[in-house]
Prior knowledge:
By secondary structure, the protein is an alpha+beta fold. It contains nine helices and 15 strands. It has helices at 2-10, 46-54, 72-84, 118-129, 150-158, 193-202, 222-232, 263-275, 295-301; strands at 14-19, 24-30, 37-41, 60-67, 90-91, 98-103, 134-137, 161-165, 170-174, 183-185, 205-210, 236-240, 243-248, 256-258, 281-283. α6 runs parallel beside α8. The chain is globular and about 60 Å long.
Amino acid sequence: VRALLRTLEDLGATAFTTRSAVDAAPVVVRGPLKAGTVKIGGNFSQFISAPLLVSPMIDGITRLEVENAKEKPYLQMTVDWMTQQGVKVDYDSKNYSYFEIKGPQAYHPVNARIPSDWESVAFPLVAAAVTDSKLTIEDLDLEGNQGDAAIVDVLQEMGANIHVDHEHNSLTVIGGTKLHGITVNCSDIPDAVPILSVAASFAEGTTKLTGIEMVRAKETDRVAVMHQELAKMGAHIEETHDSMTIHGGHQLTGAAVLSHDDHRVAMALAVAGLFAKGETVVSDAQCASVSFPGFFEIMNRVGAGFVIKE
């Protein structure tokens, strides 16, 4: 949390953690905030969206200068949400290198529909693609700007049979087709890396996931963790600080694997277990509920066959 607290301090707040040795909550924050220019690292969209959302309530011009912005679709979603509620934001719509807001401005109430979460859709989508299944996923946000919707394009490029129905906001995946390795720049879809590494293990040939340095600083170092756990199942993976290379097409074997208390790792490994030979046991899999409550029950309704052990 240090980077976020530093941004608040740069905007005039008193902000610190009571556990500075581990850089974690609880945190103490005392206002008020003051207008000015602050510089923010661009690795994590949340650390940009948070001060961006509060900037309209600051008297004066607040300018956020972002160094090498990643996760750009999430930044665009933030601006769109603010604009929808009547706030004017001047920003670099290409590189997201700056955001400028003149305050004070007021947010206006709106009637809005919360879109479906493509980060969660990715797991049943890949599960169907790597097994002999036919699955239709309904009520999707096909016209929005969620970066993780790109998982559909990536899987189609790998050879997955996916039909997108814009009229009914749904897609149908027909599994059983051969997938093949490709190169994917994941800088805008970092949360998809765990499940993409699973799809790549199933695919024939070599898949390279690039632009993933920030994935090492999520709930876990997801690059190292997925490498470690998929290797237990027989996957052939190499990693650098900013990439994963997966040599796919090898039959995975069921194994006892660790979720590392990371929801996306737990769900990705569970999907890997669906096409592995033998039994796969994912420890502490209940952490999946952080982002996808009922994941295992919902998957079982369409035939996954997960056995949940307390």
